[in-house]
Amino acid sequence: MVELVRAGYQLGPPPYGYRALRIRVTDPTGRSQLRAVLVPDWHTAAVVRQIFTWRADHGLGFAVIAGRLNADARQYPPPVQTGRWTAKTVRRVITNPKYVGRQVWARTVAGRPAPVEQWVTSGPNAHEPLVDPRTFQRAQPRNDESPHDVTDPADHAPPSAA
Questions:
Q1: Sorting pLDDT into bands at 50, 70 and 90, what band is 146?
Q2: CA 125 → CA 1, 48, 161, distances in Å?
Q3: What SS3 class is residue 38?
Q4: Alpha-carbon dihedral angle through residues 39, 43, 49, 51, given to the nearest 10 degrees
Q5: For 67-95, how does the pLDDT look when each residue is reduced to its tens digit (9 = 90+)?
Q6: What is the band of 151 on the pLDDT scale with cuts at 50, 70, 90?
Q7: Is 83 helix (H, G, I), strand (E, B) or coil?
Q8: What's the CA gap between 143 and 134, in Å, rounded?
Q9: What residue spans carry the region label Disordered (predicted)?
Q10: What angle do CA 13, 28, 100 make, to 5 degrees?
Q11: Coil vs helix vs strand at 111
């Protein structure tokens, strides 16, 4: 798995803003195998860019961004799993290094965040980045923002029937 990530292939479902494109590759033994690479999904990639703009350029908090996204589900379709944007979902987008074009694996161990130095990463531009590294850095949570400080009433509300 480590070799696949370092080679830039996607393991598991693609993050919001991307889709997985299956490609056929030949391994060193000459066997042909299917692998997945990330390619931008034109509609949801625009949402990811907007999230980073609101965060990096306007300094908006995760809950405020989630509220803006939920106000127009047609323009900002929510992730399928939750059916709506939450502060926690926005934070996950903001902190995911895949958006700068790197493959990353093992960011968590047993459901807990792993230290950055233990992550398995590819080189830069393993796939098309959705945000530049400077914007990504500016959008990151500040030291005074607790990882537990992302709850809002929408986090516990049932999905809308719309």
A1: low
A2: 19, 17, 39
A3: strand
A4: -130
A5: 999 999 999 999 977 789 999 999 999 99
A6: very low
A7: coil
A8: 18
A9: 117-162
A10: 35
A11: coil
Q: How far is CA 76 from the centre of its chain?
A: 15
User: Is the predicted pLDDT of residue 160 greater than 50, yes or no?
Assistant: no
What fold is seen in the domain 2-141?
Hect, E3 ligase catalytic domain fold (3.90.1750)
Residue spans per domain, the chain:
2-141
CB 23 within 8 A of CB 10: no
Q: Whole-model pTM?
A: 0.84
Relative to beta strand 32-40, strand 18-26 is: antiparallel
H helices present in 57-142, as ranges:
62-70, 87-94, 133-139
Query: What gap in Å lies between CA 81 and CA 106, rounded to an integer?
Result: 21
Provide Rg for the chain, Cα atoms.
Answer: 17
